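Recall that a protein's primary structure is simply its ordered list of amino acids. Everything else, from secondary elements to tertiary packing, is in principle encoded there. The following example makes that idea concrete.
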Amino acid sequence: MQLRVPPPPQPAEAGGRAQRRRSARLPVHTRATVVATSALARLRAVAGPRLAPLAPYARRLKPLYPRPGRSGWRRWTPSWRQWLGAALSSFVLMSLSLFIAYEMTDIPKNLNSFATQQDNVYFWSDGTPMARTGWVQRQDMPLKDIPEQVRWAVLAAENASFYSDPGISVKGISRALWRTIGEGDTEGGSTITQQYVKNVYLNQNQTVSRKFTEAMISLKLDNKMSKDDILEGYLNTSWFGRGTYGIQRASQAYYGKDVSRLNAGEAAVLASMLKGAALYDPTLSAANHKRAVERWSWILDRMVDIGKLTPAQRAQYKTFPEPLKSGRIYDTGKQSDYLVELAQQYAKKTAHISDRQFDLGGYQIYTTFDRRRESALTDAVAKARKQAGKDHPDAAKTAHYGAASVATDGRILAVYGGPDHRKQGYNESNAATVQAGSAFLPFVYAAGLEHGVHKTRGGAATPVTPDTVYDGDDGVAVTTPEGPYWDRSGRKVAAHNDGGRSYGQITLDQALVRSVNTPFMQLGMDTGLAGVRQTAVAAGLLPSSLGPQVPALSLGTNSTPSAIRMASGYATFAASGMHTEPYSVRRITRNGSQVPMATPRPQRAVGATVAEQVDRALTESFRTAHPATAPSPAPGTPRAGGAPAAEVSGKAGTTHDDTAAWYAGTSDSVSTAVVVYRIDLAKSLEPLSLDGLAGTAADVPYDIWSTALGLD
């Protein structure tokens, strides 16, 4: 019998190496089993004593399949303890997951770009909307300015428990998820908080991940924002159809008025649109109308149910409030573009609004433009354009018409900027392009009356009155205290009248009435061209529109005022010598809050007596040229500034080279200036001869002027 001698015991380290060598010779899957078994053995050795008390409970929860002591199908079903353990474990895991998700979800700092951008809305002087600019049709409205019944109409329709819920609806989310996952469809059920989160933080994609994120943000938002702030944000960002976001723009689109003027019945119609304007806008189809009426009635009944309308109040809304047939989406177009351009430039400058701030929108710009006067002025120019196309087809192709009406208090009431802003970008009413011509003479007359004349160099000024006599002959040489005035070519400078006509000795008053040039060219020299320039600027003309101080300045040869500035200057004479800078915006708000801006104040330009004398001559000029049209004023009729005067005054203006024709005058404390000229913009900015386009002695500008004022 052969005996086996066991090997001597190995040190622990040597044994470990031997064990690893033996394991290395085993297959891979066998090695993994050995390692796992060893690890489990070590875990039992360490944790066994600590877990020993829990062992009986663990054995009871451990499923035994098939279950002993049971027969049939019961052998394979878990016990109630196992069901309970699984349910509790699932609840704990789900709660932990939701807690982690809630803590890890942050409210985004950046809102959707469309959620903050708004449009800018421009209003006529009577407060009705005129135009809007911007990519998004939205105007934010503070909650305090939204009537309570309007708010509750929306809440009754969408989320009556808004002020008491936690920001989410578990039932609604479950229903939405079931339809999204189980049936591939979508359904509502969101709270207003959830809808607000979707509007401003997320997208409109109907996915499980988006709905989950929406719920987490809604919970957190409900804890950090007040309910009123959430409701305000929701009402200002929701889609109401007709191209509008927010209840303010929706109110204007459906009912043509601000949300502050809505009643509960109209609010219920707008609340219906949140369900889908394509289905509930009653103007789109008979089926829509039926649905809209049914939902409108339901919303009002619901308001009664939740205690926000009394039965007596509900009884007041028996007739469905029909919205406007088409939404008033006040887009700019043609002539209104020129108005918007003027108002925008003025608003930015006066209220110190940067381009970036203005582009973000939300501004309500209340202009000075009078809808009736604007329409009359535009129609008058359109009529003249049409007639010019028939009578002078070639010249009419390059014809331009600028016109403006300015009140004596500085308000710009109407302008004609051009046929279409999209085709001709610059505003002809505000363009300093052509000579003022003899329309400039009243400023020279006012300067002489205001400052007097100097017959000797450095001597005292001699007063000038309307009865002061000057030489009205054609070709009279212009003189200075030292003798004739010589130009740079060494020739004597002489003044000329229209048509070369001579008038002999004539008073300044009659010279202005009959538009005689020669007396005023000499008057300008006697007064001092610096004084003429000073008076013209004080009355309203821009310094940049006045050329060099040479004798021709008095005849408007190197003066190029715009129609707005010419009207403003004539308004100064009608306002007893008080000039107010022309302005196009009277008030600006942003999201209902007032934006600080300064309104121009009247300043003394010339004395009241001087202004009255100039205006009296302009009145007589109008009566002399148009006796059949001139009205007879009631004696003692007061005018701006308190001076008694006639109702209508005005004067034509022509240039020596026939490149421009003007008519400027005042009626009912509103001065209007009209200019007709020709420029071929495709070639240069040099004025061209009118070639009869303006008629004889500026007939066409006068026709436009009188038609716009209703005097024809």
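Confidence is low (pLDDT under 50) at residues 26-36, 180-188, 634-646. The longest strand covers residues 399-407.
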